Amino acid sequence: MMKEKEMKRVPKLRFPEFTDDWEQRKLGEIIERLTGGTSIAPDDYVESGYRTIPKGAINNLGIADMSGCKNVSEEFFVKNISSKTSTGELVTSLRDLVPTAPNMGRIVRICGDSEEFLMPQGVYSIVVKNNISEDFLITYSNSSEYRKIIMAEKNGSTQVHIRNGEFLNIDIPLPSYEEQKKVGEYFSHLDHLITLHQRKLEKLERLKKGVMQKLFSQEVRFKVDDGSEFPDWEEKKLGDDVQFINGRAYKQDELLNSGKYLVLRVGNLFTNDSYYYSDLELDNDKYIENGDLIYAWSATFGPRIYYGEKCIYHYHIWKLKFDENIISKIFLNYYLLYDVEKIKSQRTGGTMVHITKNAMEHRELQFPCLAEQQKIADCLSALDDVIEKQKATLAAWEELKKGLLQQMFV
């Protein structure tokens, strides 16, 4: 009896009205039709016409993100009509430009008003057979077991892909149609809730960007607590009040896997969580400590307030030194963040890879008095607090979904 129970293919967590085993099927057995996209050259895109499915449409929320759509002419669309899809249909991508292929093989539904689209190469529309829940299939494509299969089956190193036959040969555990519908609808509601929280976060971030624009352009000004006006902003060179101190350039053999001091590199500020260490004893200006304002000037650049242990900072990072009786640290951090966007928008052609120390020191900016700086800093800090709380709420819902996906599938 125990052996029979152990052999049952059932999830750890399921709706109580269902007790039957799940059966193992191939995707090819439950998909009625898999239709691929067509080759679209850069010159084939036009200003208006039939929209194409963008590369970023595939995600883990079950609804296609159509924000990056491009257009092709009616003539091109008709010529490639066999690669069309439309609102309400399921689509997936079996190729990815990112080696880790975070969204390859995930399945989403095209939502919105009735419309026909053209699929580019690598994108496929899916029509499932009767008694197969589309929502269940969408949900399963985000489960940890399915993602492991996708990672195991992918081919290539730079532009990774899965062959059609390999995709259709993937095993899928399948409950009864009634249980499929129940599971699919549950996760569809959960995805909708997560999407609402994402949109709220995006709205808050747009609000912050708009507030920064109005405050730093002086379109909106704070007043003194007694209702009087603050003095006019004073124009000055950034280097007049702020010292930009270069970090230390390291030779590779000076970077250790362990040591007394952590070495902070530009990549550590953004995406790289792999750290080196050093035992070197240096001048005080080559260290940063908790609360210091720093500025990455190479590759992805911009300011941030450092929170962490005392460390040595790399050559591609500046430490900013200034009198906090004249300039508010939090204000300066926000002002420089705003200025980064101005620098990017003023650059014509090419890719911004760095900004020079001389250019920063001679950059002319207008500064308010310290009291108005503090009001601006308080306003933007309060907005950031709301944004961080929304990020935490979104992360909690995403973590809940992740846990349920692990528990509710075989």
Write the layout of secondary structure elements.
Layout: H1 2-7, E1 23-26, H2 27-30, E2 31-36, E3 45-46, E4 50-51, E5 71-72, H3 74-79, E6 84-86, E7 90-93, E8 95-96, E9 107-109, E10 116-118, E11 123-128, H4 134-140, H5 144-153, E12 160-161, H6 164-168, E13 171-174, H7 177-216, E14 234-237, H8 238-241, E15 243-246, E16 261-264, E17 276-278, E18 287-288, E19 293-296, E20 302-305, E21 311-313, E22 317-321, H9 329-346, H10 357-361, E23 364-367, H11 370-407
Parallel strand pairs: 16-21
Antiparallel strand pairs: 1-13, 2-11, 3-5, 4-5, 6-10, 7-9, 7-11, 8-12, 14-23, 15-22, 16-17, 18-21, 19-20, 19-22
Helix pairs in contact: 4-7, 7-11, 9-11
Keywords:
Adenine-n6-DNA-methyltransferase TaqI, Chain A, domain 2, 410 residues, Helix Hairpins, elongated, 3 domains, four-stranded antiparallel sheet, alpha+beta
Main beta-sheet annotation: 4 strands, antiparallel
Mean pLDDT value: 92
Estimate the helix proportion, in percent.
Answer: 25-40%
Q: How would you classify the helix and strand content by structural class?
A: alpha+beta
Q: Which geometry do the CA atoms define?
A: elongated
In CATH, the architecture of the largest domain is Alpha-Beta Complex
CATH level-four homologous superfamily name of the largest domain: DNA methylase specificity domains
Strand order of the largest sheet: 2-11-7-9
Tell me the count of domains.
3
- In angstroms, what is the radius of gyration? 27 Å
Give the CATH topology of the largest domain: Adenine-n6-DNA-methyltransferase TaqI, Chain A, domain 2
Strand fraction equals 15-25%
State the separation between the terminal residues, measured CA to CA: 21 Å
Number of helices: 11
Supply the CATH class of the largest domain.
Alpha Beta
Q: Uncertain segments of ≥5 residues (pLDDT<50)?
A: 1-5
**DSSP E strands, number:** 23
